[in-house]
Amino acid sequence: MHSDGPHGPGGPGSPPHPASSVGPEPGQGHRGPVVRSAVRHAPLVTQVSEQFRELVRSGQWPVGQKIPGEHELAGQLGVSRATVREALRGLSITGLLEARIGDGTYVRATNEITGVLLRDEPPSLLEHVLDARAGIEAACARLAARQATPTALEVLWQRLDARTRAHGSGDVAAYARADSAFHEAVVHASGNPLLVRLYAAVAEVMEESVRHTSVLPEAPRTRDAHRQLAVAISAGDEDAAGKAAYELIASVKAAAPLAGPATGARRV
Fold first, then answer.
1. What does the pLDDT look like over 96-109, one tens digit per residue?
2. Contact 179, 215 (CB under 8 A)
3. Is the separation of the CB atoms in 253 and 127 below 8 Å?
4. Among the three residues 112, 131, 161, which one is the final residue of a domain in this structure?
5. Is residue 104 classed as helix, strand or coil in its secondary structure?
6. What is the DSSP letter of 19?
7. For position 225, what pLDDT does the model report?
């Protein structure tokens, strides 16, 4: 019988097999390596960033609020100020936070998409958002007219009634929230989850913009456009629903002060 020599497999000259996560599969011989997932610990800056991001996402740090300073945050977390500074800088780059020289750091947005939208500050910011909404809402309105469920239609009319009541109260902030809720109902009625997620990013920008630019009482054209949209969707008329969505945004653009004050969306 042939035996392994001193340099053969298992012989004295053979190198020891390293203890690693890479090796042959059981019963497969040496046909190929198997890479097993390794345990890794995220860098400290990444861990701190995630904690800050969760505070924003959960609303514990609401949009517009000034967050604690670097020294206080470092003390709370038991890390260096340099680590906190780097984490804050990263979130400022993504648009979640905004550092104001001589003032402090404020929460700008709850998600990176909205943060990117808000980093741009031309006088026509509101107009740009309205144009984007027109395209999204028209598509959603057509889909809603085709396939909205009875429950979605019920929610739509409830939101429209709530909007009317909020307008009658004279509370601009409540009116802005109710208006946003109505438009969200239109989008949700489309039944398209991707459009819902896409709209959510724009809607957050719009809610702040509306709060800074709305004037009560609203123009009759705008009031009527909202009802016409609900009627068209309920009737299942896709063309009329798409047209009503564009007319609604056109009425808002005609009534809103699109220049200058729209940049106030960056400030709360």
1. 899 999 899 999 88
2. no
3. yes
4. 112
5. strand
6. -
7. 96
